[in-house]
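Re: [ENG-882] Designed sequences occasionally contain unexpected residues at chain ends

Forwarding the minimal case from QA. Structure tokens:
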């Protein structure tokens, strides 16, 4: 710690994570578990991005946005898991002040961007199912590229605001974080300066930056469901549902876990429950997304079989989007 100017208090220069403090043994096992999750996340999402680039049948707006979602999941997971693994190896769950602020910044950037990307993907499905005759214009490269850029900027702006406010706080004395990585809520709990503005901005951002994309997803799927129910053939309805199933599952998991993680009761969760929720939200979810799209999406599976040299006759003709 370093002395703070104008007083005898000291500014915290290092934080200690308490998330796994209740586990005295089994750190080697946890290291292997988190390493396995991280490898599956990286390999799964990288595979999806690679398949989309290599297979011409996946050169459509839906898979363009999916490749961005996979990139976000790789970045999202890489912000937290490597540091957790390093702490398991060193058996010192610490992080410097500057690293903590950087981790928080990138974590919130990718989390906010993923919210926006999921909303953009819902709009893409709306355009494909509800406006099929205008789909090529609604999702042309002149539209989808700016939408992807906007999604990345959405999280960047949100994160910049929170990081700027957090770096203006004073952390003196208490340096133990009831968490497994640096995030805004646990840092506000240990700040020794007034956090009223930070808390208000956090609540406003949760509504505007988090709830607005979710609301757009809900509205899109209301229109999508209405359009699907008007389709007369069962085959047509099943095909329309199948193009949305993977995205709906990802949306439910991501926004559900985000709500549990950030909109916690005023009393908070116990340290064990908080650690579990954070693990599910920031570490498990990025791993599940490629698995969901791989098992639920026929076109991704066809591209994978082709890449592995297992293409059968039924996969030989290009699939129409």
């Amino acid at each position: 710690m370093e002395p703070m100017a104008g007083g005898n208090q000291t500014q915290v220069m290092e934080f200690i994570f308490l998330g796994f403090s209740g586990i005295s043994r089994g750190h080697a096992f946890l290291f292997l578990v988190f390493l396995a999750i991280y490898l599956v996340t990286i390999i799964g999402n990288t595979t999806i991005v690679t398949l989309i680039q290599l297979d011409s049948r996946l050169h459509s707006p839906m898979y363009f946005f999916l490749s961005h979602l996979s990139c976000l999941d790789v970045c999202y997971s890489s912000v937290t898991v490597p540091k957790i693994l390093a702490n398991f190896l060193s058996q010192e769950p610490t992080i410097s002040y500057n690293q903590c602020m950087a981790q928080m910044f990138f974590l919130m950037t990718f989390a906010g961007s993923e919210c926006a990307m999921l909303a953009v993907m819902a709009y893409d499905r709306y355009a494909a199912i509800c406006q099929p005759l205008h789909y090529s214009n609604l999702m042309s490269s002149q539209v989808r590229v700016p939408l992807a850029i906007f999604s990345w900027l959405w999280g960047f702006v949100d994160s910049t605001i929170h990081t700027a406010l957090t770096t203006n706080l004073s952390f003196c004395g208490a340096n133990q974080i009831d968490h497994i990585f640096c995030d805004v809520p646990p840092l506000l709990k240990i700040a020794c300066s007034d956090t009223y503005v930070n808390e208000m901005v956090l609540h406003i951002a949760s509504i505007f930056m988090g709830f607005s994309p979710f609301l757009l997803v809900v509205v899109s799927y209301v229109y999508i469901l209405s359009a699907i129910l008007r389709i007369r053939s069962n085959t047509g309805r099943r095909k329309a549902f199948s193009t949305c199933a993977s995205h709906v599952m990802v949306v439910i998991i991501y926004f559900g876990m985000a709500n549990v993680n950030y909109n916690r009761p005023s009393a908070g969760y116990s340290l064990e429950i908080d650690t579990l929720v954070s693990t599910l939200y920031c570490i498990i979810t990025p791993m599940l997304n490629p698995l969901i799209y791989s098992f639920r999406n026929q076109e991704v599976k066809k591209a994978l079989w082709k890449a592995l040299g297992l293409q059968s006759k039924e996969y030989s003709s290009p699939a129409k989007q």
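QA comment: On inspection the terminal residues look reasonable. The chain has one domain: 13-309. Proposing we downgrade this to a documentation issue.
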